[in-house]
Amino acid sequence: MIIPEEQVTTADIKSWMGLHLLHCESSSCSQKVRILLREKGIDYTGHPINLGAEEHVNPWFLGINPRGVVPILVHDGVVHVESNDILKYLDSEIPSDTKPFFPVNESEQHFVAQNLELENNLHMDLRALTMGFIFPRRLVQKSEKTLKRWETDGIADLKREQEVKWWRDFAREGIPPQDARDSAEAHRKAFAILEDRLEASQWLIGDRLSVLDIAWFITTTRLQNAGYPLSNHPRLLAWHQRLILRPAFQEETLDPFPLRSIIAPLYQMFRRVQGTTLADLIEAG
Q1: Is 80 helix (H, G, I), strand (E, B) or coil?
Q2: What is the pLDDT of residue 259?
Q3: What is the pLDDT of residue 207?
Q4: Helix 83-93 crosses helix 28-40 at what angle (to 10 degrees)?
Q5: What digits encode the pLDDT tens for the residues 92-120?
Q6: In 3-state terms, what secondary structure has residue 42?
Q7: Where are the beta strands (DSSP E) in the chain?
Q8: Residues with Cβ < 8 Å from 90, sequence gap 6 or more?
Q9: How do residues 23-54 score in pLDDT, each as one tens digit?
Q10: What's the angle, vertex CA 155, arms to CA 154 and CA 159, rounded to 5?
């Protein structure tokens, strides 16, 4: 998706030449794009956005993407948003010596389109399990002051309104147990589809690494970190273990210190002691 030029009010980025990626290290959608860029060997200029410091709700950022979310691809001054659309654009429009990551076979195209849509539709479920089970709520919730800025600054946008509502609800009540069960069940059903697909191949389409492997690797990694029992899907677990050996997949999905090595493990330990891990919740349901 391209942001219309008249909606891009941050004028300086219109003069950016080449490929530029505004991203956050721990953003799942940013990770997808960075993995594809590395796997295809595409050079780009990265612009890290610190979500914790609220850089995504300042006027400069909202003047690029009124939705206030990452990633954003700027190519020769043109602004592209929505991670799966960015993946397709990079694969089809940017020269690379690698084979395409999107299929050319019509039946495979249909399968990829269906499953990218499924992965995209699970985005809010993925967020719920991430925010509910990987980090303490007080560490990741947004203040009402931030939400007010996000709500009122920049050009009006329906999806931004939905984002603000979600974060406001989260600050008020966290992730209710039944919502977490529903999100886990939605992922279980999706993983069952992938499990069947992997019966005949080590990749999700054909005999090669594809955009589907990238997209679902991000999801399975995040769900594992939240405590989802991926071992319930043995072929999917084996597929994930193969992919984690690839440097781009391993390195681009590492959360920054101290989240990765201190805060998240301590929070998971606290959950286990309390008997409130995601696995406990799934089993109790």
Answers
A1: strand
A2: 67
A3: 83
A4: 10
A5: 999 998 989 998 888 889 989 999 999 99
A6: coil
A7: 19-23, 45-48, 72-75, 78-80
A8: 33, 36, 37, 40, 42, 73
A9: 999 899 999 999 999 999 999 999 999 988 88
A10: 105
C-alpha distances out from residue 217 to 148, 191, 244, 248, Å? 34, 11, 9, 12
Please compute, for residue 15, the number of CA atoms within 13 A of its CA located in the half-sphere on the CB side. Answer: 3
pLDDT value of residue 271: 86
Joined tokens for residue 173: 């009540």
DSSP strand pairing (45-48 vs 78-80)? unpaired
Strand partners, 47: 22
CB 23 within 8 A of CB 46: yes
Nearest residue to 233 via CA among 269, 197, 283: 197
- Burial of 191 (C-beta count, 10 Å sphere; 0-12/13-18/19+): buried
CA dist 127 and 123 (Å) reads 6
Burial of 223 (0-12, 13-18, 19+ CB in 10 A): buried
Neighbours of 195 (CB within 10 A): 16
Strand ranges of the sheet holding 72-75, from the earlier edge strand across to the other edge: 45-48, 19-23, 72-75, 78-80
The count of C-alpha atoms lying within 13 angstroms of the C-alpha of 99, restricted to the half-sphere facing its C-beta, is: 8
* 3-state secondary structure (DSSP) of residue 25: coil
**pLDDT grade for 211, boundaries at 50, 70 and 90:** very high
Statement: the pTM of the whole predicted model exceeds 0.85:
yes
